Amino acid sequence: MSNLDSLPKYGQYINGAEVPPASGEYFPTENPYSGEAWALIGRGGKADADAAVAAAHAAFEQGEWPSLTASQRGKLMRKLADLIVANAEHLAEIERRDNGKLAAEVVAQVKYLGDYFHYYAGLADKIESHVIPTDKKGVFCYTKYEAKGVVVIITPWNSPLTLTSWKLAPALAAGCTVVIKPSEFTSASAIEFAKLFAQAGFPPGVVNVVTGFGHEVGAPLVEHPDTAHIGFTGGEIAGQKIYEAAARGLKTVTLELGGKSPNIVFDDADLDQAVKGIVSGVFAASGQTCQAGSRLLVQESIHDEVVRRLVEFVSTAKIGDPSQLDTQVGPIATRPQFDKIMSYIQIAKDEGAKCVLGGKSRPDLGAGQFVEPTIFTGVNNKMRIAQEEVFGPVLCVIPFKDEEDAVRIGNDVLYGLAGAVWTKSLHRAMYVTDKLKAGTVWVNNYRATSFTSPFGGYKRSGIGRESGADAIKEYLETKCVWISTDLDVPNPFIRR
């Protein structure tokens, strides 16, 4: 028996039970810190995708789930929220093993999901329709909102449970049923998460999970005739393919894609606070966040001072084992992503950017899947390092002259996910905030998000919004109802 055979196995979660993949095949998932396989993940395929969609479709059309009132759905979600908090340490440990997130951060993230589900539990019975005062006599007209149907959720490896919940909670509140396809690199936590739904009392088939590779299980889910909406977070190329496939079936989508967000520091900013915001914006989670402020725009008069403070501050960061609570920079989640980051560091050097901090890997730590926090100066906005998403702990610093110059540089990119402004001037903050083409703009802070506020991007950063009250609309269809109050049917040959 090989060492792999002794590892725990995760199958598919379909119709309320964990089952082996139809193929009988499994693949290992590795701990990015140790480099060792710690579990086996079921290699799903079209048969598994079909079974999961069939279960979700049946649960949506008949049985207990569609017969529940919105308030009853909310009660189930509240039970789930409490279970998430009770099991947060367990779920966080699995996620940390899979993607190398810092222990302190991932535990806090998972616990916060309890608040997320409580919020949407409260929204479930507040989806209110409208009576419409039309220009037609003898009719009563109103709208109602109905769940779209089976929702496919496809998530990446950087924050698996968080990004799943951003879609799952509003979808359930709306009355949809769901099939989740997690990243092949981080699938175990999704299976463990799904088991909580049965404990909370959700009917079988409402939430399903299929694991495996995108072309083998993700594509069949997107293309299945019984799926109605696709919620995806991930890379731009994969997002384009999903959008094209969904369009062939005339399905709706929410796409949260890449970013190359500008973090803009003016000469009147509180530099101590700005430096902390810069570090949080790009080096938290080892830079593996879509909203990372990877382009630092600094007014020319303070450029050198900001760089000096940054280098001094970031140089103190402790790199190492993510299970240790004092570790500040963990490993890169996957080997392909590690290689990509290192290639971009070399590209930046070849383009003429000056590496003033980091720029190297750390083969002495764990399995060597570490990249030092890296800062480049001498960057102009046309360089690839300033235009393309690195998704790692790499910051490029770009000087600017004035407000108009900052806005011009900030918007001169294909993405529009987020941005930030550091200034003591209210007028300047409002002006730049209004001009930036981004879905989220922070003023004198960076990376704050909430279940109460919408999140999403402009331009190539995506379509639709997640979180907040806006998100639930993505999972609803609008129906308009006309009821005649006339005693006599009008002339049928004359359109009303």
UniProtKB/TrEMBL annotation:
Pfam families: Aldedh. The active site is at E256. One of its GO terms (molecular function) is oxidoreductase activity, acting on the aldehyde or oxo group of donors, NAD or NADP as acceptor. Gene3D superfamilies: Aldehyde Dehydrogenase, Chain A, domain 1 (3.40.605.10), Aldehyde Dehydrogenase, Chain A, domain 2 (3.40.309.10). Keywords: Oxidoreductase. InterPro entries: Ald_DH/histidinol_DH (IPR016161), Ald_DH_C (IPR016163), Ald_DH_CS_GLU (IPR029510), Ald_DH_N (IPR016162), Aldehyde_DH_dom (IPR015590). Residues 22-481 form the Aldehyde dehydrogenase domain. It comes from the Bacteria. Belongs to the aldehyde dehydrogenase family. This is Aldehyde dehydrogenase (NAD+). It comes from Aromatoleum tolulyticum.
